[in-house]
Design a protein that fits this description.
Elements lengths: L20 H16 L23 H6 L4 H11 L16
């Protein structure tokens, strides 16, 4: 195996501030897009940013009214969330 120094980043940036994590994430996304536009930039990778978490609470009565199960709701969320991080997972809860 040969060592190829061209495979390592030329520059690494760190972004921090007193803003809310969502504001920093938005700024990092904008910076990511602008850096990627520069001629000669092979790639730009964004890492270490906070991902917003969404909690879904289901109304069991309404699920029954619409003849839906919890699994139906999870399936719809999973099939439509194309930006989900690789390590994301749904926690399924049993209701009595």
């Amino acid at each position: 195996m040969k060592f190829d120094p061209a495979q390592f980043p030329i520059i690494q940036l760190s972004l921090s501030g007193e803003e809310e994590p969502e504001a920093l994430r938005k700024l990092a996304d904008e910076l990511n897009l602008e850096l990627a536009k520069i001629e000669g930039v092979a790639s730009v990778n964004l890492s270490g940013t906070a991902i917003k978490e969404v909690r879904v609470e289901l109304d069991q009565d309404k699920l029954r009214d619409f003849k839906l199960s919890q699994a139906d709701v999870v399936d719809v969320i999973e099939s439509n969330n194309i930006s989900m991080p690789k390590n994301s997972r749904f926690q399924h809860f049993k209701w009595s």
